[in-house]
Amino acid sequence: MKLKDQFQFVRQNIKKNKIRTFMTILATAMGCAFLIVLASVGYGLQQSIVNETLEDQVVTKIDIHGYEEENGNYRSLTMEDIEYLESVEGVNAVTRRIQLRQFPVYSIDNFQTEAQTVVAHFPSEIESGLELSDGRLPQSPDEIVLGYHFSNSLMEESAEEELYDDQGELKEEYRYKDELIGKTIDMTVKKLEDNEEEIQTTPLKVVGILKEPAREWMQDRNVYISQGILSEVEAFTGMIRGAASAEEELDKSYKDSFDVVNVYATSLEEVKAISDKLDKANYATYSVVSEMEQINMLFTIAKAGLILVGTIAILIASIGIYNTMTMAVTERAPDIGIMKAIGANPKTIKQIFLLESSYIGIIGAIIGTAAAYLISFLVNLGLPLIIEMVFKEELPDGLQFSAIPGTLILISVGICLIVTILSGMRPAKRATQIDVLKAMRREI
């Protein structure tokens, strides 16, 4: 019997029992849809978390926290380390920063604020992607660059009322509203000696404002000074990094080291190789790629568990397929007897019934997949609205509860076909064992 004739035989038999076949296909479709939708939650949340992580961090950045010595202790990085890091293949830039060990008071007109003060190496910062929103980079020691949100923290010295709103931000009426580019701002540092406080004020010219951070919740209120200004502060306090008191003084080993060192790779593909090489060289590193590996591993385990749970629904549907195929064998016993009487090969008879069970599985998988896409769309559209209405919580932008990639469809359809074929194996084998004479007398 040709394959075309087998298909025609299957279709004829299905038409004879439309309702039973329809219910079996419906059960298979529901099982397949349940599997896809359930697993899609793992894919959707993974995609949302990965995307948010990639947005929150520079994906080519590798944080270098220190160098591990033979005794197991970590030391800060020096210029020798910077030169080595710059020589590593795939490295685009190595930024280094030094932080002042006190928070100076910055004042202009009748406004003032305290801010973290940093010495940055701007050539490497520019290579890493640092941008200005206004102005230019410093060209002389007394010129500075401000973080994008620095002006938001400048407040009136004479203000005595409640200065901050419910979000902890300085109220608009107390903020400095003029342009800072080209203005001179005074930096006041202090030192404590014999329980007496001394101060030193240095006028600095604002020449640039850094670009706003990528994420809304990130705040950059730093002040970026030159190495020359840092040296003046160190000379005034007599301590490394300009610490204000002996209790805050650093060990002398920190004198020629850097507080923050970051390596920027030429591309995301280079990050893993660079991180591995630096780890072998005893550098303590961290990169977003490492975080992605951990996140992906956790979600892989979660997705495997969800797929396993979803497979149970298909296994339940397989009971219906087994029942349908068993009844089909019983009802078609005379036809089977006739086929065997005219010399049909038992393999052909078995193939016909496996073809029918596969047909049910394919139709069910197609309907289930279409239903899963519809349910996924409704979940992503309606669930955030329900959560916000019921729990009064505002969800992050771009949060996706369900995502259906092509691999999930292939996995689900494959599981569905395997289960349906296995469900038809026993009835198909039984069909080949029917006795011809009994079948012709309808005694089966």
From TrEMBL:
Its main location: membrane. Residues 21-279 form the MacB-like periplasmic core domain. One of its GO terms (molecular function) is transmembrane transporter activity. The chain crosses the membrane at residues 21-45, 297-322, 359-387, 399-422. InterPro entries: ABC3_permease_C, MacB_PCD, Macrolide_Exporter_MacB. It comes from the Bacteria. Pfam families: FtsX, MacB_PCD. It is a multi-pass membrane protein. The keyword Membrane applies. Keywords: Cell membrane, Membrane, Transmembrane, Transmembrane helix. Belongs to the ABC-4 integral membrane protein family. This is Metabolite permease. The lineage of its organism: Bacteria, Bacillati, Bacillota, Bacilli, Bacillales.
